[in-house]
Amino acid sequence: MIESFRAGALARMGLGYEDIKALNPDIVYCTISGYGRTGPMANKPGYDLVIQAYSGLMHLTGEPDGPPQRVGFSLV
Predict the structure, then answer these.
(1) Are residues 35 and 53 both part of a single domain?
(2) Could you tell me which InterPro entries the record lists for this protein (predicted)?
(3) What is the pTM (predicted TM-score) of this model?
């Protein structure tokens, strides 16, 4: 199972690792996070537009003297 919700979101829905493991002890449970599961930004959503902005990628797109713009497709 692969999940990419904010930290603790699936556990609150009854679908955390322990809940799923009780249904299938052989489960492989992969958690992906934009900012990690600990630290000051662990509970922030890590979606494409935000990651493009934080990474500086938006600074490289658009007009030379214009504001940052997102890449035309979901890249992150």
Answers:
(1) no
(2) CoA-transferase_III_domain, CoA-Trfase_fam_III, CoA-Trfase_III_dom_1_sf
(3) 0.65
